[in-house]
Design brief:
The chain is built from eight helices and nine strands. The chain is of the alpha+beta class.
């Protein structure tokens, strides 16, 4: 367990011996095992303890009003689950958290984590960095979703994952990116095909190359 926690972002910079010392003779945490498909935590339930994945991986699932299920995030050991929702006035999970295979979860009670932050500045600093990084990721997702059309979302994705000096990017998982944009797989493929037909991009077997960056930028102004 301690060797895994050493690689956890919350304990970054700490030795395995130091982590072992922190948790020695302490009962303010719990370890729970889950099987594939088990719901680890339900949407809109109170989040009173920080969950750390010790083994395996999990994903978040959200159900739209249409009944469509969408994977929101996929996390694997030794990542943290929803750290941004642990503190504050609204500490409820925004999605269902589901086990993808056999999973082991360590839960640190919120009060105990707060004590650790007070006792170890490095843990506090790491937690702040984690929250900031997550905020940046979600701001990008909100940015994508703010566009009016799917074409604008796809173009912004292509521009954001390429540059003037490196115009080629790996072809993304179409199913995953479709869910990310709340669109169908065929709709995303249609947009890519249209951009290719207009010679704005070139699609290969494994990559997409932006041929006319300026023209793509003009389309989302």
């Amino acid at each position: 367990m301690y060797s895994i926690l050493k690689d956890c972002p919350l304990f970054r910079g700490m030795s395995e011996d130091k982590i072992k010392e922190i948790f020695k003779d302490n009962s303010d945490y719990a370890i729970t095992e889950y099987k594939d498909g088990d719901i680890i935590a339900h949407h809109d339930t109170a989040y009173s303890g920080l969950m750390i994945i010790l083994k395996g991986k999990v994903y978040g699932e959200m159900i739209y009003e249409s009944g469509q299920k969408v994977h929101i995030d996929e996390l694997e050991a030794p990542q943290l689950i929803a750290p941004a929702f642990l503190f504050g006035g609204y500490n409820k999970l925004p999605v269902d958290v589901i086990a993808d295979g056999d999973v082991s979860i360590m839960t640190l009670h919120r009060g105990y984590l707060f004590e650790l932050m007070q006792d170890y500045t490095l843990i506090l600093s790491n937690f702040i960095d984690i929250i900031s990084n997550r905020a940046n990721i979600w701001s990008k997702k909100i940015y994508y979703l703010s566009f009016r059309s799917l074409k604008e979302k796809v173009i912004t994705y292509l521009l954001g994952h390429s540059s003037q000096d490196n115009a080629t990017l790996p072809i993304p998982d179409i199913t995953e990116i479709s869910q990310y944009f709340d669109a169908t797989r065929s709709a995303v493929l249609s947009v890519l095909a249209d951009l290719d037909k207009k010679h704005l991009i070139k699609s290969g077997n494994d990559t997409i190359t932006v041929l006319n960056r300026k023209a793509l930028e003009d389309l989302i102004k």
